[in-house]
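Data deposition worksheet. Section B asks for the primary sequence of the deposited chain exactly as it was used as input, without tags or linkers unless they were present during the calculation. Section C holds the resulting structure in token form. Section D is free text for depositor observations; keep each observation to a single sentence. Incomplete worksheets are returned to the depositor.
Section A, Depositor: J.P.
Section B:
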Amino acid sequence: MPRPPRFTIRAASALTGINQNTLRAWERRHGLIQPERTPKGYRLYSDADIEWLRLVQRALAEGVSVGRVRAYLEAPGTLEQLRGQHAPRHVSASRGSRVDEVSPAEAGLKGTTTMHLPAGEPPQGNGAPALASFVERMEQAALRFDRAGLERAYTRAVGLFSLRHAFHHALAPALARVAQRCLDHLADAASERLLTAFAREKLLGALAGLRPLHQQPRALFACLPGEQHEITLMLLSLEVGLAGVSALYLGADAPVGAVVQATRAAGSRAVALSATLAVPQETLLHLRDRLAALPRHVRVLVGGPAASENRDWLEANGFGVLPLDTEEAAAQVLRAIGRD
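Section C:
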């Protein structure tokens, strides 16, 4: 059976890249969408509504005026054509991870470590830009410090494809490329800061919109103290949010006290931590003991290349170790909070 409407207008905006005011206008002026309403009058969009909004955007991208969109979409064969042109080709996580090297030079260390990002061939569109082209657009916008251009590229990628695909296959790769350019001294570090802040802003907005009504954050995500690499943690928290679980993202270099305070306030059931370069054992044990003192049992999970390398120590001390693959890691977080 189809799931009942569950997306607020904020979530619908995050999922489609359509401004909330535009959504309201499409409803009032053009009758393009008719979301259900809660008893208090709040709009709730279904999965079918989200798909319909994406089809509307694709029609607009082909030059159809907003006043003619409904008639255009109702023409025989149009929906099948639009879906076929832009349908993402799913690559399962176990076969679709791309391994990227990360230089720890910024942390004063030598050598490289690795991180896993979603891979696979990006979806292609006939008459519309391929999703891979948005990587270049976002990268160049960040290098020019062009916030407006960055916003346009991201919003269009979300609208033509999906929030997940835009984040995984456009924004995250662009961030990785800009970070590497900075490490190679080919770009100013401010470009990476701009793009990281933009990605964090979009992630937080999406997670807030995806949060089920009246549900406190059940899963908390944070980088360990001293850890700056956020990309895979962002993707993990987004996957959990898209699964309909309220997620709270604290980001890079999160102090132990902040993690404990946020976990206590939210009543979170699981804390997922990122360790790309190293596993600070004393810090982790201190955090474990402080979380153990909370009224609710909290499952502590650690992911990242450094966590995989220190699996034996982590498991011996009561920590779960997350797979490097984002989808598999998200499934483990969901199991930790009682969601299979």
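Section D:
The first helix runs from residue 9 to 16.
Residues 88-95, 101-114 have pLDDT under 50 and may be disordered.
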